[in-house]
Design goal:
This protein is an alpha/beta fold and 158 residues long. It has one domain: Rossmann fold. Helices cover 49% and strands 20% of the residues. It has a 4-stranded parallel sheet with strand order 2-1-3-4, with helices on both faces.
């Protein structure tokens, strides 16, 4: 996807429903993702209905994504954005959590036929987290919003 999003038409903005599920663990970095994501959505889809749901940790993200997609069709989001930060430690725990989340988010997206933007990041250290969550150049929260807008537009072609 290009580095710059295109604003979506006014009518489609009013229809666009986005749920953002964001982890609270590693809060400084997760908040950076969320803030950049929300700013991008406001800029490119200012009339979209955005609901933010916070969960304790990254492992809980898929449960809330599934709940959002189980809502009735008139309130179900058109796109879900999953945000969180997992920092690797000295054990395999982070890798196991990251793999489980990726597998489940893919399953939920494919089974519901609803785009799920996966930005639960598995990172080596805080330096990587700062670059991807707090910085402007590689910010994955901003990229998540852009991907959500692109997928919303792509699914409107049906």
């Amino acid at each position: 996807m290009s580095r710059e999003s295109k604003k979506i038409p006014q009518q489609e903005q009013r229809e666009m429903r986005v749920t953002v599920v964001a982890s609270e663990y590693n809060r400084r970095f997760a908040d950076g993702l969320l803030n950049h994501c929300q700013s991008e959505l406001i800029q490119y889809a200012p009339k979209a209905r955005v609901r933010v749901v916070r969960v304790p940790g990254a492992f809980e993200v898929p449960v809330m994504v599934s709940r959002a997609l189980a809502l009735s069709e008139d309130v179900r989001p058109h796109v879900v954005i999953a945000l969180g930060v997992i920092l690797r430690g000295s054990t395999a725990h982070a890798d196991l959590i990251g793999e489980a989340i990726t597998r489940e988010l893919l399953h939920v997206a494919c089974s519901s036929l609803t785009p799920v933007i996966h930005e639960v990041l598995l990172l080596q250290d805080e330096q990587q987290a700062e670059e991807r969550c707090l910085g402007d150049e590689l910010n994955r929260g901003r990229e998540a919003a852009r991907a959500a807008i692109a997928m919303f537009q792509a699914t409107r072609l049906d």
